[in-house]
Amino acid sequence: MTDKNKYLWIEYLIFACAVSTFGLVTENTYYLQIMTFIGINTLLGLGLNMLMGYTGQVSLGHAAFYGIGAYTTAILSGTYGLNPWLALVCAVAAAVLIAFVVGLPTLRLSGYYLAMGTLGFGMIINIVIREWDNVTGGASGFVGIPVLEAGSIVFMSGASYYFLVWGIVLAAMIICRRLLASRTGRALRAIHDGENAAVAIGINTHLLKLEIFMFSAALGAVAGFLYAHFVLFISPESFGFMFSIKIVTMVVIGGMASVWGALLGAAVLTLLPEVLHGFAEYEMIIFGLILMLVMIFMPQGLTQGIMDMIRTARRAKA
Amino acid sequence: MQEIVQYLFSGITTGAVYAVIAVGLSMLYSSTELINFAHGEFVMIGALAMVTLWVRLGLPLPVAVAGAVAAGCMLGLVFERFAIRTARNPEPITLIIITVGAGIFLKGAAMIVWGKDPFSMPSFSSHESIEIFGAALLPQSIWIVTAALVLAGGIHLFLKKTITGKAMVACAVNKKAAWLSGIPSEKMGVLAFGISAGCGAVAGIFIAPITMSSYDMGTILGLKGFCAAMIGGLGSLWGAFAGGLLLGILESLGAGLISSGLKDAIAFVLLLLILYIRPGGLFAAKEAKRF
């Protein structure tokens, strides 16, 4: 084991300890619920970060995969009574398949064109969910999603679901990190730094972008699955354009190309509406302002921005 | 036949509104390479300012229109100065988030100023509708189409005939070269921002009588405007205009003949098709990508 690897495992260990201490100590179900949402959003952020942060491809339709995951599991397990864990497999398969079909032509585009293409795709999925009402429940939403069970454990109370979600987050983090440390990860970063150069050294950039797009769709579908079985009621609004933007914002605010950035971004954007709840009227104004200010003054995101601030402060002292 | 003509009329009417939105976006994109996700919010500001100035305060129509356009332009300029120009890292993704943030901010501000209820507005002239092939043509539709044509024609003349306009085109083609030949390219960017925001407000003013105006009307209109601009060809003035008309007509026909629920999907399906088949847009020749 190299030194770097050792540090990584220490990081994971600290993270796992922090998460489990919080889960064991907290008895307030509201806090546990918020933390569960942070975990679900972290999964979404992680997935998009792989695409956006490392490959440099912007997707403004990521909520579509979240929705596909949530609705596939809801329909299969709710309407047809399939075992939810089997439904999870189907949800991931559906998202990956759709990502393949959509990504094949879309990922040939770049920059604003790719952003608009994914935006259009996200809108179409959302409209389909809203209009196909005899299957999805339409605008009024889908009720009757079964509760998750595994053997004798029922994932119902705040704590059990909390551990389920964060266990999956930890696993996803490790998978992402392993992927990034591999040959594939280096190829991804090569695309980010210069696509033409990457092609020149023999990387099949289109295939690789497609693969990572499918991977991030799969993570999105897992998040959707967890969301559906947690809130037990889903409606189209949760998977619309604004939510796609929110996921992009999580990645950008937290800091691109950083696994911890996704976590920080998800935490900030999930907590913000809760904190702003007292200012209901001003919530949108404050949210918009924060987005603008962070992007204007800390374009690298909070992780990098705060680190830079600490560094400058240290230098000022010395 | 009668139905088809009716769909065409309503399609051209909304299409003209999309066209004005798309022209504003396209103009901004070609001179600053910025896609403004808050553009739809300027449409909303135009419509709601019109409600206040014309319906509430009872100002004469031309004054109210001028006031609403001025409000849109001013907001656009303030936004450019404080958000876009102060940005430390003007990369596309950063700018996208900044404009999205501005859009949410404007929406929230409008909610506080005008409340959550939608407003209706009377049409500009109260003549009877005209009957053509048995289909009714509303006078407001004529207003809208005329306004769209005058606006696009005006911008066209401005870009082709005036020295300032020519300087703007030069900036759009090559910023550095324009700067080297003494054109203040930064000022041209500001000007483009002002005109673009003004276009948004104009679209809002004319759409207010045919739909309800509320603080959250902007987002979907802005997105439709993008679709129109992309379909026609980003950065081409008449391309964006034609894209808007085409989108309006297809939407109206689709809503009438297929399903009204899927109306909003038409724009995005069209957008994806165009991106796959002809990413430059329908009317963009390779060399003449801008204006």
UniProtKB/TrEMBL annotation, chain A:
MF GO annotations: branched-chain amino acid transmembrane transporter activity
Subcellular location: Cell membrane
Membrane topology: Multi-pass membrane protein
Location, primary (coarse class): membrane
Keyword field: Cell membrane, Membrane, Transmembrane, Transmembrane helix
GO cellular component annotations of the record: plasma membrane
Residues annotated as transmembrane: 7-25, 31-51, 63-80, 86-104, 111-129, 135-154, 161-180, 212-235, 247-272, 284-307
Signal peptide as annotated in the record: none
InterPro entries to which the protein is assigned, alphabetical: ABC_transp_permease, LivM-like
UniProt cross-references to PANTHER family, sorted A to Z: BRANCHED AMINO ACID TRANSPORT SYSTEM PERMEASE, HIGH-AFFINITY BRANCHED-CHAIN AMINO ACID TRANSPORT SYSTEM PERMEASE
Protein name: Branched-chain amino acid ABC transporter permease
Lineage, opening ranks: Bacteria, Pseudomonadati, Thermodesulfobacteriota, Desulfobacteria, Desulfobacterales
From TrEMBL, chain B:
Family stated for the protein in its record: Belongs to the binding-protein-dependent transport system permease family. LivHM subfamily.
Protein name: Branched-chain amino acid ABC transporter permease
The keyword Membrane is annotated on this UniProt entry: yes
InterPro entries (alphabetical): ABC_transp_permease, BCAA_transport_permease
GO cellular component: plasma membrane
Any Gene Ontology biological process: amino acid transport
Membrane topology: Multi-pass membrane protein
Location of this chain's protein in the cell: Cell membrane
Record-level Gene Ontology MF annotations: transmembrane transporter activity
Pfam annotation, one family: BPD_transp_2
UniProt keyword terms in alphabetical order: Amino-acid transport, Cell membrane, Membrane, Transmembrane, Transmembrane helix, Transport
Lineage: Bacteria, Pseudomonadati, Thermodesulfobacteriota, Desulfobacteria, Desulfobacterales
Main location: membrane
Transmembrane segments: 6-29, 61-83, 95-115, 135-159, 190-210, 230-253, 265-285
